[in-house]
């Protein structure tokens, strides 16, 4: 396992549609073992994000940097525990994603998610401007837009768009039907459907999710092109 700075939700409360989350932000050289330790004390734990330190920085330096960013967005702080309102956590994570590489368990294990390519470009630190998929071209201005537009284009002519909900992570949903969007951290409706998708992803994860949906419905990865600008 690689060294990472992690954000783990250890508890949460939902009141009138607003999520309040207690999140531990720390460092680990073995995230699997770290998760086991948290799971022993709470059944509500969930790994939200992980980041690897920049090559010229130590793990401790990266952790301190993430803590400094978290203090700007958190409602309260107690040592390594930060209290976030849902929207504030998204802003925090997106800010850190611009500074450090957001990674998944699959990245650390040296593999890719099902349907993802083994040699994907690194989109960290970029902003998409145009996405070309299935022969159509769309202007976009964020990775959330790119993901939403791409998935909508894929589902537009399929007979069973609900099958996309079968694509999910170990502990979280990525696509849900209407009425379950509260299961997502940052949901966005997929146009012309009754489905919602998660948009709380790094740039690279957005691309992987598009690849997974393409693979799910039998489309070739070659039918996807993304044009970016430096963020």
Describe this structure in words.
It is a single chain. This protein is an alpha+beta fold. The chain folds into two domains: 4-109, no CATH class; 126-230, Replication modulator SeqA, C-terminal DNA-binding domain, CATH 1.20.1380. Helix content is 31%, strand content 30%. It is built from six helices and twelve strands. The strands form three sheets. The chain has a six-stranded antiparallel beta sheet with strand order 4-5-2-1-3-6. Strands 8-7-12 form a three-stranded antiparallel beta sheet, with helices on one face. The chain has a three-stranded antiparallel beta sheet with strand order 9-11-10, with no helix packed on it. Strand 10 and strand 11 (195-198) form a beta hairpin. The radius of gyration is 18 Å and the shape is globular. Residues 111-119 have low confidence and may be disordered.
